[in-house]
Design goal:
single chain; 537 residues; alpha/beta; 16% strand; globular
Length: 537
């Protein structure tokens, strides 16, 4: 036992959980916490971005490339609301993010007296964006709640959590024992479910594996490849499943390949995916039998119609199947043909975008990190960018968060351990985050930003041109001189006129090891979605 403030106890509990960086912005309600961090600066860094929205984006990016929880910190009210966009993205992508959210003084919560930063029902607002939320009412509760929050992130479906912290609780003093992190049991695959899937695979002649965002990390990366090799079956990666298997593996296929495979496949096993179209319907797999494996029971229910539903950790089930399934002949040359057809189709229909995608992939090492914005190059990257290593591809999932990419990439670069990080964005999306060039400069974060400028919300403009007869509204942009702006922040700037120049500029930026921006003037590209969205469900 030791006498400490709530802020000291919270800081020590975070350190005991392995936290090395908190992405946060100080404020009066958090003074007790930041003072606790001051006393432990040799063990815990406070990295301060220039917008509260960036705190949760950065924590998410940090988690996505490290596999470790990211921690964000904001004041109550407007701070919480600003951080909400990053929490929504983390929720959609099943990311381990802990939000430390200030509150007004505990005795005033719910009073409606207009205390500084008060908003009605802040707790309920946070609960809608988290798996678990708690608010200590006594300083003695802080260590246990911190440990429980981390346990929640590390068990079941990983999603964001939050702690609400009143200034009075953070300043209160008590004799406390912080204790150790709570034990987390390794997930176990249910024997009956594994046996059912193994039997279905044994009875099939053309099985297909489908992997989603629940299949992540080095262990799963190895297991997916081993299982695909044993059965000689294609592995279709959803957009969230990129990085579950090396795209160079002869069994790896992009998400849209499922449409062609369904004509031949007689069994589909999906691991860690919601297995839904963007319209909320089950993916069409023709007459094939379907097995779904998911840690979240909600992702096994209607409108899905599985023949086998296994509510379990996808990696645990993969490991059990690798131990049980026998080597056999499978798709053989037909799989090679399908890979070649997918590659040719992409290059034929979105060649202008693919030139830049290829340039970025060529410039990055195999484990280099690519953060994908909702921009014209970004859309094509969801199926055209080859991911070679786990924890090396980041996108916003079904939340589709425009403007998330740069701050998320900054957090990724903090956690990257020396791996280079490239983010693509457009002149629309970058408008959400221009101020974070200051963050990159202040902390020397070597993020490489490839900025495509067409002076429009390009996809909106193209739809208005092609679908609405050129009735343009709200889709044009007035941009700053990006060269002057970027240099004003003290960041390296390069103008690249084509894909080859982009590749050279990325290589030079990696060598320099400093934050850099590469601007690429472009026109509106052809639609990246013409053959990607399924027409029949």
């Amino acid at each position: 036992m030791a006498k400490m403030t709530g802020g000291d106890a919270l800081t020590q509990a975070l350190i005991s959980e392995g936290t090395e960086t908190v992405f946060g912005i100080p404020g009066v309600q958090l003074d007790g916490l930041t003072d606790g961090m001051y006393r432990r600066q040799d063990e815990l860094d406070l990295l301060v971005p220039r917008h509260e929205q960036s705190t949760t984006y950065m924590a998410d990016g940090y988690h996505r490339v490290t596999g470790r929880p990211g921690v964000a910190m904001v004041v109550p009210g407007p701070g919480v609301l600003n951080a909400g966009a990053g929490m929504a993205t983390a929720y959609a992508c099943s990311s381990q993010v802990m939000l430390l959210a200030g509150t007004i003084p505990s005795t005033l919560v719910g009073s409606g007296l207009g205390a500084l930063h008060e908003i009605p029902k802040q707790t309920e607002t946070i609960e809608g964006l988290t798996k678990w939320t708690a608010r200590p009412t006594r300083v003695e509760e802080i260590p246990e709640l911190v440990h429980e929050g981390f346990r929640q992130m590390r068990t079941g479906r990983p999603r964001p959590v939050a702690l609400e912290l009143g200034p009075d609780i953070l300043h209160a003093v008590a004799d406390l024992e912080v204790g150790d992190p709570f034990a987390v049991e390794a997930p176990v695959a249910p024997e009956d479910g594994v046996a059912e899937i193994a039997a279905m695979l044994a009875a099939s002649s053309k099985p297909v594996f489908h992997v989603g965002g629940g299949v992540r990390g080095p262990k799963a990366f190895e297991l997916v490849a081993r299982l695909a090799d044993l059965v000689d079956a294609p592995v279709v990666m959803s957009e969230n499943g990129r990085g579950a298997i090396d795209a160079r593996d002869p069994h790896a296929l992009p998400a849209f390949a499922l449409w062609g495979l369904r004509e031949t496949a007689d069994a589909v096993v999906s691991f860690g995916s919601r297995f839904l179209t963007p319209f909320g319907q089950q993916l069409n797999i023709g007459d094939a039998r379907l097995a779904l494996v998911n840690i979240d029971a909600d992702d096994l229910r209607a409108p899905r119609r599985p023949d086998i539903a296994v509510n379990a950790d996808a990696t645990a089930v993969l490991e059990a199947l690798v131990d049980r399934v026998e080597r056999r002949e499978g798709w053989g040359g037909e799989l090679r043909r399908l890979r070649e057809e997918c590659e040719a189709r992409v290059r034929a229909e979105v060649a202008p975008q693919m030139a830049f995608v290829d340039a970025i992939r060529s410039a990055l090492p195999a484990d280099g990190i690519f953060v994908n914005e909702l921009t014209q190059i970004g859309y094509v990257s969801t199926y055209g960018y080859p991911v070679h290593a786990p924890h090396s591809y980041v996108w916003p999932g079904y939340q589709g968060t425009l403007g998330y990419a740069m701050p998320t990439a900054l957090g990724a670069a903090v956690g990257a351990g020396g791996r280079p990080v490239v983010v693509v964005t457009g002149d629309g999306g970058i408008g959400w985050s221009l101020q974070e060039f200051a963050t990159a400069k202040k902390y020397g974060i070597p993020l490489i930003t490839v900025l495509f400028e067409d002076n429009r919300f390009g996809n909106v403009w193209r739809i208005q041109r092609d679908t609405y007869g050129g009735r343009f509204i709200g889709s044009d942009l007035t941009n700053p001189d990006f060269e002057l702006l970027v240099k004003a922040f003290g960041i390296d700037f390069t103008l690249a006129e084509d894909a080859d120049a982009v590749q050279r500029a990325i290589g030079q930026a990696i060598t320099a090891g400093r934050p850099a921006v590469i601007k690429v003037p472009v026109d509106v590209f052809p639609s990246p979605w013409g053959f990607i969205h399924e027409k029949k469900h």
